[in-house]
Amino acid sequence: MNNNISIKTISELLKCNFHIPSYQRGYRWTEQQVTDLLNDINEFSPKEIANSDEKTWYCLQPIVVKQKDENEWDVIDGQQRLTTIYLILYYLNQRYTEEGRVKLFELEYETREGSANYLKNELGKIEKDNSNIDYFHISIAYQTIKSWFKEKK
Known about the structure:
There is one protein chain. By secondary structure, the chain is an alpha/beta fold. Helix content is about 40%, strand content about 15%. The protein contains 5 helices and 4 strands. The protein has helices at about 10-15, 30-45, 80-95, 115-120, 135-150, and strands spanning about 15-20, 65-70, 70-75, 105-110. Strand 2 and strand 3 form a beta hairpin. About 20% of the residues are buried.
C-alpha cells in the first residue's frame, strides 16, 4: 500500500476529477460552517519564513483521497470541505466573462446522480432549492458565499 502525503495548491486541484463514493454522506454544511471557513481564509495573514524568500500559506484540514486514474480520485474524507471550496471557486469564477473563467475541478457523486450537473449548470439559479436535500444545502451554502463576499466589498 502506498501512502503518500502531499500538500497541493488549489490550482493543482483544478486539474483533477473527484468521485464521491456512496458511503459519503450528502453535502450538509451549514451557513455557520461556510462562514467560518471564509472567515478563516480571510483572516489568515502570510508570514515571512526566516532565511528564505517564502511565506507561510493557508492550509485546509486534510482531504483524503485514493487515486483511481491519472487525474481521477476517490474522496475518502473531506467531501464537505472540497464541495465548499468548489462553491467558493464557482462564485469567484462567475465574476469573469466566459472566456476568462478557469476550468474548475469536477465532483461526481456516486449516489446523488444529479448533483454534479447541478453544480455545473444550476448553481445560483435558485436562491433556496428545495427540490432535494442535497440541492437545498448546496444552494444555502452558495447563497452564504455570495452574501459573505458582498459584505466584504
